[in-house]
Design goal:
Structural class: alpha/beta
CATH superfamily of the largest domain: Metal-dependent hydrolases
CATH architecture of the largest domain: Alpha-Beta Barrel
CATH topology of the largest domain: TIM Barrel
Helix content: 40-55%
């Protein structure tokens, strides 16, 4: 039997895990949920990329790890490994105060944590690092930010690229670059925003449009010669009125450029029914797969292993019903298998679609 969560899915496949329900296995002895051998194998062999994957929403804990990396304990590492996620993109957005200084400090903190634990973390600088993280059993950390106001001039794009930033969301709220999805009128990508986007393309930093307003979203897609990313936003067709979710027009145009949209597990962007579950997340995947192709679907959960309701109130404002965020990758994979997605399609959703799109976005262009 598997007695600890840290033994995880690899042990469930390789060792005699408790078998129930015709070949379904528990991840640990006390677990109520069971998973098919196909699900366990798919997660085990895939490079799972969570394009808004947070190590923790407890920012006091995260700050402590960064200031004193020794406080990141083996148990912290094992719990993250047990989640099934290979690559985390733990981007945050600074909106007030000295955004340039705060953003630089955030990246410096990640650099210090990664440097202190070379046996546990793999820094993602280039597409080849995805496979390296998987092969070595490390947690991949892909550095990004959810607001590009730290780019005061195009030269700052180069500076932050050299610090290790590889993804930047153009706007969170409206800023000098363009409009946000919340608050204020969206007049589109500004001339300054066009210059910053062009510089990002030139150095090989991926453009994220998750929080952009509708016009800025379309302008950014049109302006970029390489794929742009929607790292954590769902389909507005399934959640009418949710400005953070993307329209079918935006999704089609993003896909035509080779981009990928990943789906959050934050309740308000998944559904507005009395009960909102993982099945509703799967509905978003189904919708975009039919609208475009499976090549443009990924994961960007926007939660940690505890879920937002642990740190944000009131309870159930953010969480899905019937979910254990520790096992969300397994639940998602099991659901995709139940909906008859092929192994290849599931592997694409779990990571290879983002591997492809990021490889293209990270190629420096002329300009």
């Amino acid at each position: 039997m598997i007695s600890r969560r840290s033994a995880l899915y690899s042990a469930a496949v390789a060792v005699a895990a408790p078998m129930v329900n015709r070949g379904r296995f528990a991840l640990h002895a006390a677990g109520e949920r069971t998973y098919s051998t196909r699900t366990l194998d798919l997660v085990q062999r895939s490079t799972v990329i969570d394009m808004l994957g947070l190590l923790t929403l407890n920012y006091r804990k995260l700050t402590a790890w960064e200031l004193d990396p020794a406080r990141f304990q083996p148990a912290d590492f094992q719990r993250l490994k047990a989640s099934g996620t290979t690559i985390f993109h733990p981007a945050v957005g600074f909106l007030t105060g000295d955004i340039y200084a705060q953003s630089a400090r955030d990246i410096s903190g990640w650099n210090a944590l990664i440097k202190a634990h070379p046996d546990k973390f793999q820094r993602i600088f280039a597409s080849s690092d995805f496979r390296l993280a998987k092969q070595t059993g490390k947690l991949g950390i892909l550095i990004g930010l959810q607001n590009s106001e730290h780019f005061r001039t195009p030269a700052d794009v180069d500076e932050f690229y050299n610090l290790g930033q590889r993804v930047s969301q153009l706007t969170y709220l409206a800023n000098r670059l363009g409009g946000g999805s919340a608050g204020g009128r969206d007049t589109g990508l500004t001339p300054f925003g066009q210059r910053i986007l062009a510089r990002m393309n030139a150095v090989g930093m991926a453009v994220d449009i998750s929080h952009c307003g509708d016009r800025t979203t379309l302008d950014a897609i049109d302006a970029s010669p390489v794929p742009v990313l929607v790292t954590h936003s769902n389909s507005r067709a399934l959640v009418p009125g949710a400005a953070r979710c993307k329209t079918d027009e935006a999704i089609r145009r993003m896909a035509a450029k080779g981009g990928v949209i990943s789906f959050t597990m934050v309740r308000a962007f998944v559904g507005n029914a009395k009960r909102v579950t993982m099945d509703h997340v799967l509905d978003h995947i189904d919708h975009v797969a039919k609208l475009t192709a499976i090549d443009h679907v990924g994961i960007g959960t926007d939660v940690d292993l505890d879920g937002r309701d642990v740190v944000l109130l009131p309870a159930h404002r953010f969480a899905l019903d019937g979910i254990d965020y520790d096992t969300k990758i397994f639940d998602l994979t099991d659901g995709l298998a139940r909906r008859r997605y092929t192994d290849r399609a599931i592997e694409q959703i779990l990571g290879t679609n983002f591997e492809r799109a990021l490889a293209l976005a990270w190629r420096p262009s002329a300009g």
